[in-house]
Amino acid sequence: MSLVKFRSRYFSLDDILSSQERVPCLFNTNVSFLGVGELTKKYANLPESYIKRMMDQAEWKTPRGFPQYLRREIVRKNKYFGLNRPWTGAFQMENARGRYHPKVFVEPIKDWTIFKGDRVEILVGDDKGKQGIVSRLIQERNWVFVEGLNCKLKVMGKTKTFPGTVFRAEQPLLVTTEVALVDPSDLQSTKIEWRYNEEGEKVRVSARTGRIIPVPQQADETYDYKSKATYRESTKDTNEKELTKITFSPKIKTFEMDIMDSMGIKEERIPCKTYWY
Amino acid sequence: MQFFDEKDNWERDEVRVGRAWRIPELRIKSNDDLHKLWFVLLKERNMLMTMEHEYKQKFEPFPSPERLDKVNESMVNLEEVVRERNRAYFELETGETGERPGRLTPNALGMNYWYKASEHVVPPHANGTWWRQKHLWYDRKECAQFLTYYREKLFLAKRKQRIRDRNHVLGLLRRFPDMDMEALKEQYPTVDIERVKRWKKATGHFVPK
Amino acid sequence: MSTRWYPIYQKGNPQLRVFLPNFWMKIVRPQVKQPANMVKFITSVQMTDYDIKNYLEKIYKVPVANVRSEIVEGELKRSKLGYIIKDDDYRAAYITLKKGETFKFPDICEEKQKKDESDFKKAQEQAKVSYEAFTSRNKKRPGVPGWFSF
Question: What ipTM was assigned to the predicted interfaces of this complex?
Answer without folding.
Answer: 0.89
